[in-house]
Structures are given as structure tokens and as C-alpha cells.
Amino acid sequence: MEKGIIVKGIGGFYYIKKGNEVFECKARGKFRSKRIIPLVGDYVLFSYDETTKQGVIEDILDRKIELIRPPVANVEQAIIVFSLKNPDPNIKLLDKILVMSEYHNLELKICINKIDLDNEKLLYEIIGIYKNTGYEVILCSTKKDIGIDRIKEVLKNKISVFAGPSGVGKSSILNKVQSGLKLKTGEISSKIKRGKHTTRHSELLQLDFGGWVVDSPGFTSLDIGYIDPEELGFLFPEFKQYMDHCKFTNCLHVNEPNCGVKNALKTGYISKERYNNYVDFLEQIKEINNRRY
Ligand SMILES: Nc1nc2c(ncn2[C@@H]2O[C@H](COP(=O)(O)OP(=O)(O)OP(=O)(O)O)[C@@H](O)[C@H]2O)c(=O)[nH]1
Ligand SMILES: [Mg+2]
Ligand SMILES: [Zn+2]
């Protein structure tokens, strides 16, 4: 048996890279009966018949991480991409993706693309919101070649995923990061200024300068109902030091008195936008939990 990594999956076929070769394989029926879906990023054992050119995934090796959206396994880092304009950034979705990634202990970078499109006031607002989070905000423009070198540095020798809405320029950035990729990129709809879901399947790409990166289809909704309400605050890194000052150890930082997080909100160390999103996510999580039990 051979060992390889799944780089793409389309219509029941999986493309497995071993060295410089890619093998087309199907998955054994046992995975379906166990409800295991092979994911891009999975390390697998497979057999391949050279005469019939047919391959079969025999086993999936232990997954370190499994993301539902985008559906990938074993990534170490997420680069969360939004654009300054066309489409406008959705800070709530950005925070939700950050929370999901924190839950999975991923290293995180925020990338604001299309900074050639003038929206300076908003840009400073976004930088302000994330100032105390510890997250690096990488400013990019594929049109003006800004930020690409920094993206290359953060991708080097890691397994990363590009995540974000459709049309923000994920595939465009990756085409700049490595020449020869020729990823398809799409126009923005002229009326509603949204992407047209050009990338249809997640694909794991090997980088010449070291490392792997997954280009994934854009998305606009994300379920975080699996997170425990009491855990949510810990997924906002700038909340953590203030949570020690909460009177109650199980404080949810909404209605409780003597709350360290709410005090830090008053002094402006925690941003209003981040806090409001926290409260909103907490409501969503509680609602989902209520429905479940
Ligand atoms: N003005 C400007 N336009 C950009 C920039 N980067 C990408 N675009 C344009 O944005 C559009 C969408 O780019 P894509 O790379 O297809 O976006 P995507 O995030 O991969 O979208 P999906 O695959 O649909 O998720 C294209 O028309 C690009 O030319 C940029 O820095 N500035
Ligand atoms: Mg794309
Ligand atoms: Zn509190």
C-alpha cells in the first residue's frame, strides 16, 4: 500500500498526491457505512492498479483537525480573507470564523484584500477593532502587489487554509503567491457586488517555497452550535486576561455584576463590535442548545 495526501475530492473521486504524482481513487465502502467522509488534507493509505488505473483509499490516518467549513483536515493555520470593498467586509462573519478557528486551536491571520479600492475610513475602523486581539491584519492588493510577500512568509512551511466569502480574492492572492497555479478567478456581480462562487472545490496546493495551502470555496454562513456557552469567552483572546476579574467563575459577561469583560469594554480595551458579536454568538449557541435538549 502507498501513503499519500488527499489534495482534492470531486463527485466521489479523490485525488491523492504522493511525491510529484497524483492518483485518482475511490473510497472503500466501509467509510460510507461508518459515515466517514475523506477530506482534503487527510493522509491516507491507498492501493493503485497501474493496468486499470484504478485506485482505492484503504485507510485514513489519524486526523489532527477536522473543519466542517471549509471541509479540510489537518490544517495548522487559517488565513481569513475579506475585502475592503466589493464585497464589503462582514465583521460578524469574520469574528465567527475566528471563533471557529480558535476552537480548533489554529494559528490565525486576518487578511484584508483589495486595499487599492478606496475605503480608508473603514480600513482604520477594522484595524481598530482588532488592535488588542493579537491577530495580525495583513493588508493586501493583488492589483497593486501589496502584502503578497508577507502572505508568502506566513504560509512558508505550514499547512494553511484560505477561508472567507466568495469574491474577496482568495484564489487571486494564491495565484500571486505562486506563479503557475492558474486558479480560476471570477468577476464580482455588478449589481450586488458579490462573488459568484468561482472556486467550487477545496484544493490542497503544494508551495514551491515550502508548505501547503488549501484554496476553498467562499461561504457566508457558519454553524458554531457545538461550542459550549462557557467556553465562548475563551475564544476571544483579548477577553481572557479580564475574565480573571469576573466575580463569578462561570460568568458569561452579559448580565452578571462585577464582570471584568464588561469593565474592559467600558474602558475601551475590548472593542464594542467584538463584544456585541460575542453576545450575539452566545445567544445563537444557547438557542441551538435549547433546541437540542
Ligand atoms: N480591485 C481589486 N480586485 C481584486 C483584488 N484581488 C482580486 N480582485 C478581483 O476580485 C474578483 C474575485 O476574485 P477571486 O480570486 O475569484 O475571489 P475568491 O475569493 O477566490 O472567490 P470564490 O472562489 O468565489 O470564493 C476578481 O474579479 C478579481 O480580479 C484586488 O486586490 N483588488
Ligand atoms: Mg476562489
Ligand atoms: Zn464576566
UniProtKB/TrEMBL annotation:
Coiled-coil zones: none
Question: Which GO annotations describe the biological process of this protein?
Answer: ribosomal small subunit biogenesis
Q: Where does Zn(2+) bind?
A: 246, 251, 253, 259
**What CDD domains does the database record attribute to this sequence?**
S1_YloQ_GTPase, YjeQ_EngC
Q: Which InterPro entries match?
A: G_CP_dom, NA-bd_OB-fold, P-loop_NTPase, Ribosome_biogen_GTPase_RsgA, RsgA_GTPase_dom, RsgA_N
| Domain named EngC GTPase: residues | 73-220
Q: Domain of life of the organism in this record?
A: Bacteria
Give the enzyme class.
hydrolase
Annotated binding of GTP, by residue: 113-116, 164-172
Q: Where in the cell is it found?
A: Cytoplasm
- Which cofactors does this gene product need? Zn(2+)
EC numbers listed for it are 3.6.1.-
The portions of this protein that span the membrane are none
Q: Gene Ontology cellular component? A: cytoplasm
Major localisation = cytoplasm
Entry-linked PROSITE patterns? ENGC_GTPASE, G_CP
Pinpoint the CP-type G domain residues: 64-222
Q: Which UniProt keywords apply?
A: Cytoplasm, GTP-binding, Hydrolase, Metal-binding, Nucleotide-binding, Ribosome biogenesis, RNA-binding, rRNA-binding, Zinc
Tell me the GO molecular function terms: GTP binding; GTPase activity; metal ion binding; rRNA binding
Which free-text remark accompanies the cofactor?
A: Binds 1 zinc ion per subunit.
Subunit structure, briefly? Monomer. Associates with 30S ribosomal subunit, binds 16S rRNA.
Q: What does this protein do?
A: One of several proteins that assist in the late maturation steps of the functional core of the 30S ribosomal subunit. Helps release RbfA from mature subunits. May play a role in the assembly of ribosomal proteins into the subunit. Circularly permuted GTPase that catalyzes slow GTP hydrolysis, GTPase activity is stimulated by the 30S ribosomal subunit.
Family per UniProt? Belongs to the TRAFAC class YlqF/YawG GTPase family. RsgA subfamily.
Q: What is this protein called?
A: Small ribosomal subunit biogenesis GTPase RsgA
Q: Which gene encodes it?
A: rsgA
